[in-house]
Every structure is written in structure tokens, then in C-alpha cells.
């Protein structure tokens, strides 16, 4: 079983917590929820995009300006390297068709 701590060392805001869980899965498996390979850069960007789409600012069309999304992205981008390479990273995950993530747009 995969283990997650949600948003590590930062607040687990309800609107971004699922994004943190998904990010942990990406880091542990090196795959998307659908089972396709993912890079650290892509995993970190998906966390940022999740935060932007679900931020309270998204309700008024300003999700891209979410300071939380950008702060979490900077944190995992700068400090997530050890977790990406940690023992257990690359753990197998059975593909999940209903979990398919939307295409990424930078």
C-alpha cells in the first residue's frame, strides 16, 4: 500500500489536499494516476495546476495568481528531489481508468 502524509510540512488546506495526495502518488510511483510515466517536473507542475484550479481565487477567475499554489510548487521544485529519489519511489501502481488526469497545459 502507498502511504501519504498529504501536504508535507505545510498546511493541509481542504481545497489542495487531494492535489497533495496525488502528488505523493506521483512521487512514490513515478507514474500518473492512470499509470503512465511522469517526471518530477511534470508531477510538481500538476500539483501547481491542481492548486490553481481549486484555489478560492479560481472562483473569480484568478486561480493562476494563487500564492498557495505557487508556494507549494516552489517548495516541491526546490526541495522535493530527495523525496523523488527516496526508497520506494517508482513503486508499481495498477492503472486506473476513472482516475485519468486531464492533459497538462503549462
Concise structural overview:
The protein has helices spanning 17-29, 40-54, 67-79, 81-85. With 106 residues, it is mostly helical.
Count of helical stretches: 4
Shape: globular
Distance between the terminal alpha carbons, to the nearest Å? 31 Å
What structural category arises from helix and sheet content?
mainly alpha
What is the strand and helix layout of this fold?
Elements lengths: L16 H13 L10 H15 L12 H13 L1 H5 L21
Helix pairs in contact: 1-2, 2-3
Name the descriptors.
mainly alpha; 106 residues; 0% strand
Question: Would you kindly provide a written description of the structure presented here, covering whatever features stand out?
Answer:
The structure is a single chain. The protein has 4 helices and no strands. The protein is mainly α and 106 residues long. The protein is globular and about 40 Å long.
